[in-house]
Design brief:
It contains 13 helices and no strands. With 255 residues, the protein is mostly helical. Residues 1-18 have low confidence and may be disordered.
Length: 255
């Protein structure tokens, strides 16, 4: 059944692309409504990152360029202590690369849904995609078969999320110098990222990966250049993959 269905969808996307990839106002609103509860946490988290960039010594122009080009709060925060400490550029790039390795997985999950789109369109959709938006999209569309409104639903998730993040980050950048240190921004940032992290722990493999990464990050805290973070991410990802593969093999053995 899957073969003919995919063929039919492919013909429809080739012969009538507007039916599949054209704007669907209803699907866009649905995507926006699904992502709406996350926007407030993203604004708060963005403000924390914006303030952190300014407090680490970046100028307003540098911080603004970083948030527009990188668009990854975890990579930005991981890079800031290294920049402030004068770490080698290679270490900074390696840190951001490892922290963002999860986006390779997200891209692999989204690619079958939108492989028919032009390269530039896939490029900019990849740029504005994030952790939570990818998870929410895949919950709504678990299968890659072409469906009317799928692209509009994704855009309804992505555009408001990108705007909320940038608004919060720029607010933090421009207000950073006026924020007193006793506001405990580090604790606020921890709470904000937990609000984003918890919904992503959707199975035992993800939970095991998070727990192992947390333990490793604490044990390796003393490593120079914050390399303990790199180690925690790598070990956590390896743990999650191993648990998922073990579950898959057990399902195959037990039918």
């Amino acid at each position: 059944m899957n073969g003919p269905h995919l063929d039919s969808g492919t013909q429809r996307s080739d012969g009538g692309a507007s039916d599949v990839d054209g704007h669907d106002a209803t699907a866009w609103r649905e995507g926006f409504q699904v992502g709406l509860p996350t926007l407030f946490g993203l604004v708060a988290w963005g403000m924390v990152v914006g303030v952190a960039m300014v407090k680490s010594g970046l100028t307003v122009m540098q911080a603004s360029a970083m948030t527009l080009l990188v668009y990854s709060g975890s990579a930005q925060l991981a890079s800031l202590p290294l920049i402030a400490a004068g770490a080698p550029v290679g270490v900074i790039f390696a840190t951001a690369f490892v922290v963002n390795l999860r986006f390779v997985i997200f891209s692999a999950l989204l690619a079958p849904h939108f492989s028919r789109l032009p390269l530039f369109q896939r490029f900019y959709l990849g740029y504005i995609s994030g952790d939570l938006t990818t998870a929410l999209f895949l919950q709504r569309y678990p299968h890659a078969a072409p469906e009317r409104g799928k692209l509009s639903f994704l855009k309804g998730l992505l555009y408001p999320t990108w705007a909320a993040w940038q608004a919060g980050t720029f607010a933090g950048i421009f207000l950073g110098s006026a924020v007193p240190t006793e506001w405990q921004l580090g604790f606020a940032g921890t709470l904000a990222i937990l609000c984003i992290l918890v919904p992503l722990i959707i199975n035992s493999a993800a939970l095991c990966g998070v727990l192992v990464a947390g333990v490793v990050s604490v044990l390796a805290h003393g490593l120079p250049y914050k390399l303990g973070l790199l180690l925690a991410v790598v070990v956590g990802m390896a743990t999650a993959i191993a648990v998922e593969e073990t579950r898959g093999r057990r399902k195959v053995r037990h039918g």
